[in-house]
C-alpha cells in the first residue's frame, strides 16, 4: 500500500488552501483508499451539498472595531482550546500512514485542539491518550451492549475526556465507490478495539464493501434513547451525540442530559439527500436555546467556514477529511500544516469580519442562500 510517509514530500508541500492538501493526498494514495476516504453514499448529493451550503452563507462584517490582536481561543466541553475546532472521528488512519492515529493525535496536541478517536481506530486508545493531548472517544453502539459499555469504561480509564456517540449509523450507507472497488482493508490495518484478529473487513469481494459487511455484523440497529440513558449511567464523562439534524431530537437530547450535539449528516456518507448541517444548525440552535454546546460537522474546509459556523450558532466545528489528507500527504507534519492553515485562516476571517475574538463571531449576522436563489437573514446572539 502506498502511504504518504516521506519527510521530503511533507517539506515540499506548502499548502495555501485545503484544496492543495486534498490534491497532495489524492496523489499519495492508491485509488481505492482515496475513494474510501473521499467518497459519499449513493449519488453523493449530500456530499456535494455540504460544500455548496457553506458557499451559500455570507457574513455581515462589522467595522471600526479594534482587531489588532485577534484571538482564536475558545472553550469546548469546558476545556480551553486554541481555536474552536476538534479533529472529527475517521476510521483507520493507518490506511494512509504507518503511524496512523498516533501521528494525528500528536499534531492535535501541538495545535491545542481535541482529537476524536474512532471506535474503528487502527491504534488502541491507550496508546493515543499516552500522547498527552485532549482525546475524545467516538462510540458506535455495538450489537453486544456489554461490550459497548466496556469500551466506554476502557476509554474513560485511558484518559479520554468525552464520549461522542454516533447516532446516524444503524449500518453504513451505500457507498458506491467502495462497492465498485470491492474495497477491503489490507491485512495490516484493523479495528483494534473490536478484536485482535482478522475480520470480514479484510475479505474483499466483487461488488461488495468488506468494511460495510463488517460494520453490519457489529453495529446495533436498535440504538434508541434508552441506550443514551444507559450511557449516561455508565460514565461521568461529557456525552456528545453526533448526527443530529432535527430540532425535536436536539430538544430530547437535552432532556436526556447530553452535554453537546454534533449537527451532522456524517459527511454525506449515510443518507444521500440528508439535509446539510449548515442548513439544520440555526433551527437546532433555536431549539436547544443554549442548553448544550453545538458543534457542526461536514464540509468544513477553511477558517472562513469556521467563522460562518460560529455565526450560525455553533460552539465550534469538527474537521474530518482534511486532517486525514494531511496525514496521507505528510504524516504528522502534514496534519500540523492543516491545523495551522485553519488557524491562520480563522484569524484572517475574524479580523476582516471586525471580530477581535470568537465571542464576537458568534454575534455576526449571516445571509443564507435558499433553493430559489433568494436569501434569508439569520442572526445569532450566543455568547462565547
Q: Top keywords for this entry?
A:
384 residues, alpha/beta, 8-stranded parallel β-sheet, 3-stranded antiparallel β-sheet, 15 helices, 13 strands, globular, disordered N terminus, disordered C terminus
SS strand fraction: 5-15%
Provide the low-confidence segments as ranges: 1-11, 371-377, 380-384
End-to-end CA span: 45 Å
Radius of gyration: 20 Å
Level of helix content? 40-55%
What does this protein look like?
The chain is built from 15 helices and 13 strands. The chain has helices at residues 7-12, 18-28, 31-38, 45-55, 101-111, 125-129, 145-158, 176-181, 210-218, 225-234, 247-255, 277-288, 303-311, 321-352, 358-361; strands at residues 57-60, 74-76, 79-81, 85-87, 115-117, 135-139, 162-166, 239-244, 260-264, 293-297, 316-319, 365-369, 375-379. It is globular and about 60 Å long. The termini are far apart. 52% of the residues are buried.
Short synopsis of the structure:
This protein is α/β, with parallel strands linked by helices and 384 residues long.
